[in-house]
Every structure is written in structure tokens, then in C-alpha cells.
Amino acid sequence: MAQIIKNYTSLEKYEQDVKYNPEGLKPSTCKECGCNNIWCNSFYERAVSGRCANRQKADPIAILRFKCSRCKNHYSVLPSIIPLLRWYLWCMQQWVLSMVLNGYSMQKAAKEAEVNRKTVSRWYHWLKNKFKIICNILCQSNTNSIKYHDEKNFSSLFCWSQLSHIAELLHQEDLLVPYSLATNI
Length: 185
Description:
about 40% helix; 2 domains; four-stranded mixed beta sheet; alpha+beta; disordered C terminus; about 180 residues
């Protein structure tokens, strides 16, 4: 199943589009066969958690699915603020990582965010492992990001770009976000 990542700034906006304009989320053509006969094939519920004002922990959100009538390929339309293969929203992960990058201990950041310290550790090590990939993609999209090639300055990168935006850029470059960003979960 292929993922389509659409730019959204809130889950509420995505849910409105799912409810009132699902055709607007439909891919125009199938990436596999080029066919433009794609139809809505229901949805699946995805539990998410994070710092979203109107959400409780693990509130499910409906993720639309589409299917190509020729090659039978499925597509899921995921809002950019929800990471693949992860429970917490990108904004939550970015907030926690910003605390650690700005001197908080992993224990203190975990306590502040009400997540497990091991989760914070996994996110931090994932960020360190993916730093070069993220910098390369950002440098291609904006020459001002060249100054962020030093990991010590990475915390200031969050002022310029959000993790959800980075995931979106990777998707536009046809890099599979689960394998380039969301590994080591």
C-alpha cells in the first residue's frame, strides 16, 4: 500500500476534508499503472497521541483509502502531521526533541511530556541517525539550511522547519518516509 502525504496543519482540517470533501484527497493517477480510475475504498482508524488541543490520548482518526481499478493498488492519504509507524504526532516528538537538544535530560523531557524515557531515547537516537538524510533534503529545498550541517546547531533547525514538513519534503522526493525517517521506532 502506498502512502500519500498531504500538507495539513491540524487534524480537524483533515477530518473536515475526509467528511465533506473526500474526493479532494483522491490521487489523480495511480503511480503504478498511470490509470486515473481510482475510487474511495473506505478508511481505517489510526490512533494518535500528542499535543493537539482537542484530542485525548489515543483518539482514533479516520485515514482514507483509495484503490486503483486497473492494478488494484491501494493508497492511504495521511495528513503530514501524523508520522508513519509512530503513535505520537510530529509536533509532540519535535517538542520533546527540542527540550533534549536544549539541555534537558531525557528523564526530565520525558516527565515534562508525560512519555516514557525510553521513548525519548529512541526519538533522540533516531534523530542523530537520520541527521545527514534530513540535512541533505533540506539543503536541496533551501540553500539557507547549509549552516545546519553541524549537529550542534540542529536544535535551531526546528525554528526553520518542522518534522512534519521534513516528512513531506521526503515524500515529494519519492523517498519512503517510513524507511528514511520513521525507522528505529
